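As a warm-up, study this chain.
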Amino acid sequence: MPARPLGEAAVNDRDHAFLQEAFAIQIPAGHKVPPADEVAVIRRMDAKNGELAWMSDGRTFCYGKIREGYSSYSCGRLPEEAPAPGLLFTIWGEPDRVSNGENNAAVRVVSFVIAEGGPARFDHVKRSKETGPVHQAVARFPSGRMVTFLTFDRPYGPIDPEAEICRSDRKICFPSEDLPL
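Now compare it with the structure written out below.
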């Protein structure tokens, strides 16, 4: 059974153009466009730009970024082993738009995280310079299990190994930037 978004994450009347833009391109093979009541809107940037996610079941997810007529999707299954306690999945640092090589400084790196539970807020504990706010959306499965979809962005450049994001109860924390191994 699919997860359903809670509160502000639920699609509303003003999201029509955004969803039309988001689903104008083909979703990755093996996945399909979900009904609007299964889409969690993580970030509304304007009428046609933002970030969204959905989980068609307890293991399968899709995440989409829509920017200035460009959409990209990452879909898949959650790993068998979580990357860290409370974290289910992470994508570190995908560019927020296609760049033609000009004005690369304007391109932001967007990270996507799926965390177990909700609705406790996540925020930066130590924020790297010019890192954007944490955006989040909570979805609940019919079983009562909840997940939180998170996105945050930063400029290209050096990373701060101490930068961290935590849930308000501090039970789930993770580096806000992927650390090289």
